[in-house]
Automatic annotation (TrEMBL):
PANTHER family named in the record: LEUCINE AMINOPEPTIDASE-RELATED (PTHR11963), PEPTIDASE B (PTHR11963:SF20)
Family: Belongs to the peptidase M17 family.
Keywords carried by this UniProt record: Aminopeptidase, Hydrolase, Manganese, Protease
Superkingdom of origin organism: Bacteria
Lineage, opening ranks: Bacteria, Pseudomonadati, Pseudomonadota, Alphaproteobacteria, Rhodobacterales
Organism annotation: Paracoccus marinaquae
Domain Cytosol aminopeptidase per the UniProt entry, residue ranges: 305-312
Segments traversing the membrane: none
The keyword Hydrolase appears for this protein: yes
Keyword check for Coiled coil: no
Protein name: Leucyl aminopeptidase family protein
Amino acid sequence: MIPEFAAASDDALPIWPVWKGDAPPAEANAGGWADACEFTAAAGEICLLPDGQGGLAGALFGLGDRARAGRDRFCFARATALPKGIWRLAARPEGFDVTEAALGWLLGQYRFTRYKGSQPDWPRLVAPDGIDAPHLQAIAAAEFLTRDLINTPAGDMGPEQLESAARSLAGEIGAEIRVTSGAALLDDKLPMIHAVGRAAATEPRLIDIRLGETGPQLTIVGKGVCFDTGGLDIKPATSMGLMKKDMGGAATALGLLKMLATTGAAEGRRVRVLIPAVENSISGNAFHPGDVLTSRKGLTVEVNNTDAEGRLVLADALALAAEERPDLMISFATLTGAARVALGPDIPPFYCDDDGTAQAISAAAMSVADPLWRMPFWEPYESKIEPQIADLDNAPAGGMAGSITAALFLRRFTEGAGRYVHLDIYGWQASAAPGRAKGGAGQGARAILAALPAILP
């Protein structure tokens, strides 16, 4: 499905958003009818208004309690439950964010239908005056790409299929792409990507996409573990069930690349996307607990848990990226359960040493309803990632501060980059919410897009 607004139409039915406790606008002529229907303007509540001839004259839509608006992100996405047809926004009460509402409407129409059913016949919204409709449509289409990639099971979205998706996007936006796979990873000095993925039936690979030739450089690295058994430190079945989403960082990176290209944000900038695409599987040649791997950067890594593989493949990709000395480097990864324990599924932590960059990202995240929360590269914890027999430990003992120690591990491989930002995302919506169907979810891409003018002018 392509998320689009409807063209303006004289037949478009009006929607009047109403805050709880406010009377419906007089022009809605809804007073007595709304009372008879016991319309309270609770968040997402819809009151259809008759035209007196057996048809519809419009609808009231409840926004809920104005003082608690922040508790219901993308509330207006619930208006996609209206009857099919063309609708228009007829009022903008104080405190109603029309841009968020319009984007929420588009995002609320996503359904993953590859294996079952078809897209519902959604109602359509005329683009409200004053919004940048093409910009919002491009953002929604990129988010749909991210969701589709995450939702596709590993049997149909392994490293080879992820490469195909990357090639398709590169062709769509006019980008260059190069892929290194199998034993060639060793020739190109990417040994940890090879070590993690060599046990799988599908060869590990590094996907390298470039867009633009002039301007400051943004390099995006996305974790592409297409399925994670845990390796020889095998996960229990309850932990393995959602591991098709362990390539959520790669899916988000590709979604962000699509946003940058289709909104025009990539113009005047060089954008590079690196995706180490692997399966962490089990076979006779799987890497072992206790192995010591030598990374591209030359740092040795003691493998104290084969289920902490994401940071290994990211490390080689980050080291490669840093050699080019990009102005800004960003990594997206479904990396740690510790991040979920700390902040829950809705708020990914991000790490950044540069206060100005971090503040701009935080502000942008709030402005576009794509929440992020800054966490520290806490240097006193550096000793936790330093084992006795190697330079680094991929899985420090103790179980505390797991997201921070993972971020510190990655930072060791970013020397040379102008600035580094790491996002520890979840990439999944456990239950449906306004604008977010159950399943795969992009996190952080819209925030980075909104922050880009400030962080990479």
